[in-house]
Design a protein that fits this description.
By secondary structure, this protein is an alpha/beta fold. The chain contains 13 helices and 15 strands. The chain has a five-stranded mixed beta sheet with strand order 6-5-4-7-10. It has a five-stranded mixed beta sheet with strand order 13-12-11-14-15, with helices on both faces.
């Protein structure tokens, strides 16, 4: 039996843990300064331990000291410590077939700029990479942050991602994107940690941090969540008991490939050229548009389904019937996932989620018929910025390693 590797111990490790604890307290409210006594009470550390940690953080440029306000007291004035969130910045990027969104945030997670760049239809992987470079350069300039001042960059992308190798394995919506060494190219350019992840996995992280699930997490409620990206394509991001779940091949949550209609005894046919899954062809935006056309319900050009939901909200009986049909189909597929995971909360994002309660209420009604326990279903709070927010959160976690390293 191989020997276990001993856990790191000793004064150095203890000092690093103390620094991390003090840093966490200061970052929680980066807008105000805190005294040594307050930090000691919040961390449970002794005043000397807090003082040493603050001195180390000051040496790293992460803390500055200010004198206490108010009336002068005899003796040495009290010192208050402020986290210097402006000491560094991170970038979160949402890479998609139609747009690239870049957010720049300080080390407290405050977004200082967000820049959206369009991606032409049919753009190839190398062309998308050039757009990413240009958008990141422009966003950093807008924020007044040199690219050398980025401590970490994280990017969300459609498709199946090998996080360990930093490589996109499958991305049907962006031709030539899979296999492109985008992460290594960004690292060589930026000289900082760069990570890539499936976009929906970042979306669930964003909603958990700053979106629909943030209050529940902050209040100590259940930290399990499923985020469903519902547009032309359908995918899910999963958090179970406070940890992301990706599966052994990073392909967990591919809800779009659940098959609800095929004869179970029939052999599987070839996958369509556009790479869509059976569930996407059943309830994706294009399928909803098609159902509306077939029923004679209001709808727009191509995949524009906003008129359908507007008509349903106004009480148009044909539109209401189509929406109920879509909700029934969607709930059946989603229920299969919920029965296995029991997350307690589902957040729905993507273009279809803009329909709001006119669609979500029938989805909830149908889910009650297919699940065993109640589940909270709500629309995304962050909308089209969910992926970028999740990428920022991920980049902050990477930057934290630099902040707390001894």
């Amino acid at each position: 039996m191989p020997a276990r590797k001993a856990a790191a111990t000793g004064p150095h490790v203890l000092r690093q843990m103390n620094v991390a604890a003090v840093l966490a307290v200061l970052r929680d409210d980066a807008s105000t300064a805190a005294g040594v006594s307050a930090v000691a009470a919040a961390t449970g550390l002794s005043r000397p331990a807090v003082t040493r940690a603050l001195a180390e953080l000051k040496d790293r440029g992460l803390v500055e000291f200010t004198a206490a306000g108010g009336a002068r007291q005899p003796g040495r004035p009290a010192q208050y410590a402020r986290f210097r969130a402006e000491a560094g910045h991170v970038a979160g990027i949402d890479i998609g077939p139609h747009k690239v969104l870049v957010m720049i945030a300080d080390l407290a997670g405050r977004v200082v700029t967000a820049r959206d760049s369009a991606v032409d239809s049919g753009a190839t992987g190398p062309q998308v990479f050039d757009i990413v470079r240009g958008a990141l350069t422009a966003a950093a300039a807008e924020a007044g942050v040199p690219l050398s001042g980025l401590w970490a960059v994280s990017a969300g992308t459609p498709g199946v991602v090998d996080r360990d190798r930093g490589e996109v394995l499958l991305a049907p919506s962006i031709p030539g994107w899979a296999g492109l060494p985008a992460v290594s190219m960004l690292r060589e350019w930026l000289h900082c940690p760069v990570s890539i992840e499936n976009d929906v996995n970042f979306a669930v992280l964003g909603e958990r941090w700053r979106g629909a699930a943030a209050d529940a997490v902050a209040e100590g409620g259940s930290d399990s969540l499923v985020f469903v990206q519902w547009g032309r394509r359908i995918g899910t991001g999963i958090f179970i008991n406070g940890s992301p779940y990706r599966g052994s091949s990073a392909a967990a949550g591919e809800l779009g490939f659940i098959d609800l209609v095929r004869d179970p005894d029939a052999p599987a046919g070839p996958r369509p050229a556009d790479g869509t899954g059976p569930f996407e062809r059943l309830v994706g935006a294009a399928a909803i548009h098609r159902l509306a056309l077939e029923a004679g319900a209001p709808t727009g050009d191509e995949d524009d389904i906003a008129p359908l939901f507007e008509a349903a909200a106004a009480g148009d009986p044909v539109a209401v019937a189509v929406v109920d049909r879509v909700a029934t189909r969607f709930a059946r597929g989603l229920a299969a996932l919920l029965l296995v995971l029991d997350p307690g909360r589902v957040v729905i994002g993507g273009g279809v989620s803009r329909a709001g309660e006119v669609l979500l209420e029938p989805v909830r009604r149908q889910l009650r018929l297919h699940t065993l326990v109640p589940v909270t279903v709500q629309a995304s709070v962050l909308g089209e910025q969910a992926v970028a927010y999740g990428a920022v959160r991920h980049a902050l976690d990477a930057a934290e390693e630099r902040m707390t390293a001894g």
